[in-house]
Write a structure and sequence with these properties.
The protein has 25 helices and 18 strands. The chain is α/β, with parallel strands linked by helices. The strands form 3 sheets. It has a 6-stranded parallel beta sheet with strand order 2-1-3-4-6-5, sandwiched between helices. Strands 9-8-7-10-11-12 form a 6-stranded parallel beta sheet, sandwiched between helices. It is globular, with a radius of gyration of 25 Å.
């Protein structure tokens, strides 16, 4: 049997180190899936929805740093990939998507299921090319792999099912070194380092804002903090890389952050941004504060705030070159004040997570804190967008081995459980916990069946407040009566049992620790249906006048709309607790 283009694709992916492909089969993918079956070197992970496959691939790429792959059949099949691929691309993780296409001879004829994938995927990829002839292979696939790995993002190849079944040309496959470019080490030129050192040496109160670009630079960050006596504020995507074993960390800033992080930035005279594109401009310091920014991506420089100095480089390598140029500071007052603020903020947040025996309502903070306390030292957490991300940001303790994944940049709902699928496939022996909102979980609930079918021991914790909780909070804070946010949820634990997954329902605070411990000790997949307080407020560290006015307007409207009972429950949950 002659080698087909599909065989060539599979062989190249093996060389690239690909272990599995997430997707849903279809006739336009038959050549590729059959080649995988015959070669027995790459697993096909059968998800129920292609969007879940893209999220899963992104999680695998995030955790391993290696190329991950997803696939969709022609038309609607690959179109379903697009939201997950947007998340992968904005998170800068290397993912290759194989988008099958309609028969080559029918392209452009408004054929059944016809779309234009080479156009559709352009906005969420570094590379997107149509393979219409075997002579384009293996060059196009190799280019796509290098683009995804080298530029850290998504690459897409579009190929018709009939093209995949044609005879492949005789062409050598690149070796690993030629196919997978190593990441370069980038640091600013000496003149720019001297300028940064001069700025920092002349400053009295320096605060560091640290993001995901600080991955792998923990020791260098500690050395910099020690020399400058600087508090470190982390963005959400910097949490897993910065906060652990760090005497300079003063928490997170932003809409779901800590008051201590906000004030550490507000009270500095120089802000040094390290590997972050933190988007919320209202949380940056105003008036007279010097801002310098370091990022390996030059397009990020000055995007969020006016900067005095922008440098292109990797965080670790740049700090290493910068340290000898810095004068050691002796005044610790700025750091001391920020640490004191952090202790107070941390104390207040921990108080909200305490178990109050005899109470009826489960506060979601308690669920998150107990999860953190009982989870394995190397657990992988995924968090749905919305309130689960708030609780993850505030209550999960990182330690250098734990990982935290979410749709923290694209902000898509329904990310947590699919990302947990990818995390568990990549690390079958690690504990993987999905912190799912009831809205996010139910949106892609079909792929809960994938846990049972594939045999993945993911622990899914559903924060069941019967509402789109974060949207409801946003509505109230801007003066709107909450509308369209209600859910009539089933007993998720009973539903899990019906499909062969262990289900645990928690309805009282006294049962939280026992229920979560039971779930984490189970050797298969588990769904924890945690019925939590709907009226919980997740207040930002900076409450703006507009937000206070908004809540006042909401309360007036609630009374006029006959919802005075909601206000009583709001007070009982957040003031009288």
């Amino acid at each position: 049997m002659s080698k087909k283009v599909a065989d060539q694709i599979a062989e190249i992916l093996v060389v690239a180190g690909v272990k599995r492909i997430y997707g849903v089969v279809g006739d336009s993918l038959n050549g590729i899936t059959d080649s995988l079956r015959r070669q027995e070197k790459i697993d096909w992970v059968h998800v129920r929805h292609e969007e879940a496959g893209a999220f899963a691939a992104g999680a695998e790429a995030h955790l391993t740093g290696n190329l991950a792959v997803c696939a969709g059949s022609c038309g609607p099949g690959n179109l379903h990939l697009i939201n997950g691929l947007f998340d992968c691309h904005r998170s800068a993780v290397p993912v290759l998507a194989i988008a099958a296409h309609i028969p080559t001879s029918e392209i452009g004829s408004s054929y059944f299921q016809e779309t234009q994938p080479e156009t559709l995927f352009r906005e969420c990829s570094h590379y997107c090319k149509l393979v219409s002839d075997p002579d384009q292979m293996p060059r196009v696939l190799e280019e796509a792999i290098r683009a995804a790995v080298g530029q850290r993002g998504v690459a897409v190849i579009v190929i018709s099912g009939d093209t995949a079944l044609k005879d492949a040309i005789d062409a050598p496959v690149s070796n690993v070194a030629g196919l997978l470019p190593a990441r370069p080490l980038v640091r600013p030129v000496d003149n720019d380092l001297d300028k940064l050192a001069a700025l920092l040496n002349a400053s009295r109160r320096v605060t560091l804002l640290c993001g995901s670009g600080c991955a792998g630079a923990h020791e260098e960050l500690l050395a910099l903090g020690s020399k400058l006596k600087s508090p470190m504020v982390h963005a959400l995507r910097g949490k897993e890389h910065v906060e652990w074993d760090n005497p300079f960390d003063v928490g997170m800033t932003g809409l779901i952050g800590f008051s201590s992080g906000y004030y550490a930035m507000k009270n500095c005279d120089t802000l040094l941004m390290l590997g972050t594109d933190f988007p919320y401009r209202q949380f940056y310091p105003e008036g007279g504060v010097h801002i310098a920014q370091l990022d390996v991506r030059p397009e990020n420089l000055g995007r969020r705030a006016a900067i005095e100095l922008g440098l292109v480089g990797d965080v670790g390598a740049t700090i290493e070159a910068l340290l000898p140029r810095l004068h050691e500071k002796t005044d610790t007052s700025h750091l001391d004040d920020a640490r004191s603020d952090y202790r107070e903020a941390r104390k207040g947040l921990d108080e909200l997570a305490k178990d109050h025996p005899g109470k009826e309502l489960i506060h979601p903070q308690q669920i998150a804190k107990v999860l953190s306390e009982l989870a394995a030292d190397d657990a992988v957490f995924t968090a749905d967008v919305g309130l689960p991300t708030v609780w993850a940001a505030r209550y999960l303790a990182m330690n250098g081995k734990r990982r935290l994944i979410g749709s923290f940049w694209h902000g898509s709902m329904a990310n947590a459980m699919p990302q947990a699928i990818g995390a568990q496939c990549a690390y079958p022996n690690r504990q993987v916990i999905s912190m799912s909102g009831d809205g996010g979980f139910s949106m892609l609930m079909g792929d809960f069946l994938t846990l049972a079918q594939v045999g993945l021991p993911v622990k899914v914790v559903v924060f069941n407040n019967s509402a789109l909780g974060f949207i409801e909070l946003e509505q109230k804070s801007t003066g709107f009566i909450n509308t369209g946010t209600d859910f009539k949820n089933p007993n998720f634990a009973a539903m899990a049992e019906a499909v062969g997954v262990r289900g645990i329902r928690i309805e009282r605070p006294d049962d939280v620790r026992r229920g979560i411990a039971e779930a984490l000790d189970h050797d298969g997949p588990v769904l924890v249906d945690a019925v939590v307080n709907r009226m919980e407020l997740a207040m930002p560290p900076k409450v703006q006048v507009e937000m206070a006015k908004g809540f006042s307007v909401y309360m007036l409207k609630a009374v006029l709309d006959g919802r005075a009972g909601d206000l009583i429950e709001l007070a009982r949950s957040n003031v009288l607790r």
